[in-house]
Amino acid sequence: MNSTRPTPGRGIGAATAAVAVVLALTACGTTSSDAGPDGAASGGDAIDGSITVFAAASLTAPFTDLAAQFEEAYPGTEVRLTFAGSSDLATQIGEGAPADVFASADAATMTRVADLLAGEPVAVATNTLQLAVPPDNPAGIASLADAARPGVRTVLCAPQVPCGAAAARVGEAAGVDLEPVSEESSVTDVLGKVTSGEADAGLVYVTDVRAAGDAVRGIAVPEAAGVPTTYPIAALADSADAPTAQEFVDFAAGPSGRSVLEAAGFGAP
After folding, report:
1. Tens of pLDDT along 65-102?
2. In terms of Cα–Cα distance, which of 97, 53, 96 is closest to 247?
């Protein structure tokens, strides 16, 4: 696969505005009249290629299911998945990592690679933050203010990570100054600190609390509802299999993708 990419950073200012507009316009999904098997846009040709999808860590469960459904819908295709913090993935893409599709946990991170995209990003889901605590909740956490008490080991995502940026917005909305004992590069790392007993609380997405099952307890943060995170997806310009990459984007934005994401607890875009 050709891993040569345009120099990161060109056109970012103009592209940032374009991405924001497009996300607003595409929040209801694709509108192509040439529909494929999932109601998604299709060029009409059969696809049977292999693609690599870089996706935010919080998309691990639904995108694993979605990739399997895509391969079943398009026999002969292969979807290779790489999950990590969106910021780390954007950096790798900018440095030439051979990815075909990028699904970010927020629009701001997608704008970092805006000049490397093959087409306009599409919003496929939304998410909100929630406090995760150990099942026995030893610190007695009942609110975001409790997570900010002296002596409480609260863990957040790093500020440059989408879940960290969202945590800052939630803290500001709640009037709570959170001082974490550690800052992680992905939401799954924050959750891991809680499940391992290294933290009394962590701000993660509601979908992560849901996926963790009995390993954690979720504590609602009312202010989080007012600052949801939007997840965009787009094909990359240097994809070695552009038709398959775009078809996966359309598939994720279509009925199958919506169904899988909603089942995992994500909101509609």
Report:
1. 999 999 999 999 999 999 999 999 999 999 999 999 99
2. 53
Q: Does 233 have pLDDT greater than 60?
A: yes
- pLDDT tens-digit map of 182-220: 999 999 999 999 999 999 999 999 999 999 999 999 999
Instruction: Give the per-residue pLDDT at 46.
Output: 72
